[in-house]
Every structure is written in structure tokens, then in C-alpha cells.
Amino acid sequence: MHPTLAADLDRLPELLQSVRDFAAGELSGIGERPASTARKAPDPEPLPATGVGAQGALERFARRWQPGFSGSAGPRYLGFVTGGTTPAALTGDWLTGAYDQNGSSAGGSTVDALERETLGWLRELFGLSEAHRGAFVSGATMSNTVGLAVAREWLGERLGVSVSRAGAAALGPVDLLSGSPHSSITKALSVLGVGRDRLRPVPLLGGDREAVDVVRLAEELDSLNGRPAVVVANAGTVNTVDFDDLRAIAALKERYDFWLHVDAAFGAFAALSPAHASLVEGLDAADSICVDLHKWLNVPYAAAVQFTRRQDLQLRVFHNESPYLGPHTGTPDFLHLTPENSRRLRALAAWFSLTAYGREGHAEIVERCIALARRLGEGISAVPGLRLLAPVRLNVVCFTLADGPTPERLGALARAVADSGEAFLTPTVLHGTPALRAAFSNWRTTEADTDRVRDALARATRELFTDPITRE
Q: Which residues carry this modification: N6-(pyridoxal phosphate)lysine (predicted)?
């Protein structure tokens, strides 16, 4: 054994304590760490020849790289839809690395059973029936890709071809209909060989809505003259967290032949709020579902789940045909259900957080985030120079400048807020209007944090866009 590696092994408990102390120090100050940093990255260094050991590596990281890391796990990082990491989830994630289990199969370990138990809990959390079977994947993009891969196989079944054997070309042109699809949907279509251009946008309800017009969706399906299709419905759009009417869309299956995939990356968590659970009524009728866990479940990157009613088709797509993996019998191993053969045990962090806080604890996070989003929305409405672009429906606040909103001006506002270290917001465009969005999904965020974000926005708006003469 290399002497440096042997020395690290001999003092492993001390090394782990050192890392624990370092991490605890970082997390204890996460609330005041800049939500975003523009610090210049250090110049690259050559590959070490002999190495400096784990303690030396930690010290070099602290000196060279730690100052440039953002406070994305903190309470005022409101960009994208980014959760933090609950204490229990962090515990599970550290143990995931310590045990280093390959969660691909049931052979030689109980990790397969732990993942199935966690999937059952999540299924219950979101109000899904036992007809849905799931698997952990890396994020919403992969979850959507897996769901649409199963949908692609279903199309082949309807047309009498095996896509997993003959390829996507055997299908001919595919029709995929959606109102406000996330960008990961078209990315998945590209990866799956269906093609980005096969997405057929369906008109929305109008006004500030991002929900699909179900009547127009029915007309589009009717125009297919019985040809099977894929419909992607949204349970929580990224701009305004709008929800398609899932029950009405599912009811169309009585008249039309289509696979229903629901992108519920973070909207599925509305099921935990009694006041908002009606938004996801009909979710169980979906043929496949995407839910992202490193968003509102607040587990570390990267973790998501996908559910489907047709695991037999999923197995047909992802089955790994290799003698060394043994024959497939009974319940399929997870390596036969996702693109990955080797799989990090992503379920353990979720298992720890669900065990530690239960339904009630995670419901409190959801309810608090919804209340804080409304608080910020009310605050923004009172800031001269800013206006809401849509009602605060759940946990995202979408707003713009009251006058002259352009990408450049909104970008300047976002940079000013980020440079202050107070918050991080991401840009978007809603129905042609450039905007900013603040997404609440972090378990740490409080009313005080929300007011700091509001004040940072008001200060930056005043400094950037108020006429100096008027200001005096």
C-alpha cells in the first residue's frame, strides 16, 4: 500500500473528525454565507505526483476552493428550484459514501429492499396507488427521460413494433403534445431519438396561465385520427407553478389513445398541503411520473424518482442482457430499470429524512415555503418599480420591472442582488416578458430571510432604475 494511503488509513477516525469539524463550521455559517459569489477561480495546478494525504487535501481545498463556493444550501438561494439538505438527509448521504453500496441489485445486501421501502413511502406521500412502481435516478431530467423511454416503448406496442429491438426509427413520426413543457422534455426527445421537433405545443388557457387548454388538447388528439400519442402534463411549471387539470386530461383517455406522462418535479409536493392537494388530483392516473427529490424533499444532489404503471415496458427498455448478471426472474433488479448499471444508493438520504421527520415534518417545510413565497410576493408588490407577473400559486414568485422590462435590465437587477450576497435569483421569460423568479424550497428559509430578499430587491431596484433627481 502506498505509504500516504496507509497513513490515512491508520488515522481515519481523526480524519473523519477533522472533516466533520470543517463541515460543521461551514454549515453553522451558511445563513450568512453569500448566496452567490463572483470570486475568480484559482489558476489550475499540476497533478500532484505523490500527494499530500487527506488532511493536506482538506487544507488545500479550504485555501483554494472553499472561498468560491456559493451558499446554495442556504436559506436565501432562491434560484432554479433548489432545496437544501436536512440534517437527517446529510446523515444518510455521509453514510451512503461510507458504506459505498452499489444499489443495482439485491445480491449480497439489503440495499435493494431499503430502496423499495423508500419508494413505497414516497408513493404514499404523493397519493399514488400500488399500481405505480418506481426507481431512483439522478434528477428530473433523467426521470423525464426514463418516463418518455417507457412511453416510446408503449407507442411501439400500440403499433406492433419493438422499439427496444428495432430502434426509434421503427415508430415513424411520433406525436408528443404538451402546453408548457420543461426544457428537459425536449432534451429527452433528443436523447431518445424521437427528435425535439416532434413536440406539438398545445395552446394555454390564456392570461397569466401556463396550464394547457384541455379543450384544445382534445382537438389536437382528435386530429391524429386514432394514431397513438404521448401527452406530457405539468404538475407545477417552473415560472409560476401552474398545474394542468390532470383529472380532465386523464378523462380524455376514454376517447383517445395516448400515454400520459406527468412532470411533477416539485409540484407533486402540493399533495402534502391540505389547501393545495387538489392541484395534484388525478396524478395517480398518469402512466409515468417525474418527481425530483433534491428540490422540495431537501436531500442532497443528485436524487429523483420516476414512477410508472408499466414496469414491464420499462424492463423491456432497460434490461441488461449479460450472463454475468445472472438470469432475470421475478421482481427486476434496479439495474434493469434505469440507464445506470452501477447506482449510488440515493435512497438512503431520503430514507433518513422521511424516517426522521415523517409526513408531518416534510409537510411543514412545504407549507412554510408556500407562506414565504406569498410573503415575498406581497413585499414585491409594494416595491416601487417592481410588479408581479402572475399570482403566487405555490412556491415560486415570478416578477418583473414595472417599466421597460428587458433581459439586460432584469439581468442587471439579478446581478446586483447576487453581488450583495443577500440572495440568488434566476431569470426567465413569461409569455414574452423578461422576468426574475424566486423559488422557495429550502428547509432553512425563514420570514427574516424572506424580508432580507425583499429589501435587497428594493435597494437594487432603487439604485439601478430610480432617476437620481427623483431620488433626491
A: 295
Q: Record the cell numbers describing residue 386, joined without a space.
A: 417592481
Number of H helices, E strands in the chain: 15, 11
The closest of 179, 188, 156, 150 to 169, measured between CA atoms, is 156
Set of cell numbers at residue 18: 477533522
* Number of separate domains in the chain: 2
Distance CA 56, CA 95 (A): 23
Is 436 in contact with 413 (CB distance < 8 Å)?
A: yes
Q: Tell me the residue range of the domain where 445 lies.
A: 29-44+53-86+358-472
Residues listed for the chain? 472
Cell of 67: 472561498
- Give the residues across from 134 on adjacent strands: 307
Cα 237 from Cα 253, distance rounded (Å): 23
**Distance in angstroms (rounded) separating the CA atoms of residues 307 and 291:** 8
Closest CA to 301 of 264, 252, 262, 350: 350
Q: pTM of the entire structure?
A: 0.95
Whether 334 and 124 have beta carbons less than 8 Å apart is answered as: no
Cell triple for 300: 442532497
- pLDDT at res. 472: 37
Residue 250 has pLDDT above 90, yes or no: yes
Contacts of 410 (CB under 8 A, 6+ apart): 400, 401, 427, 434, 435, 436
Task: Tell me the per-residue pLDDT of 222-240, one tens digit each, with 9 for 90 and over.
Answer: 999 999 999 999 999 999 9
pLDDT surpassing 50 at residue 470: no
Q: Grid coordinates 494511503 are at which residue?
A: 5
Question: Are 310 and 405 part of one and the same domain?
Answer: no
In terms of domains, do 162 and 246 share one? yes
| pLDDT (average), residues 179-190 | 97
* CA trace torsion 329, 334, 340, 344 (10° rounding): -140
267 closest CA partner among 259, 279, 275: 279
Among residues 212, 204, 208, which one has the least CA distance to residue 252?
Answer: 212
Q: Under 8 Å CB-to-CB from 17, ≥6 apart: which residues? A: none
Q: Which residues pair with 291 in a beta bridge?
A: 305
Do 143 and 265 belong to one domain?
yes
CB neighbours of 286 closer than 8 A, spacing ≥ 6?
A: 233, 246, 250, 260, 261, 262, 307, 309
Q: Residue 212 in 3-state DSSP?
A: strand
Over the chain, what is the mean pLDDT?
95
3-state secondary structure of 292: strand
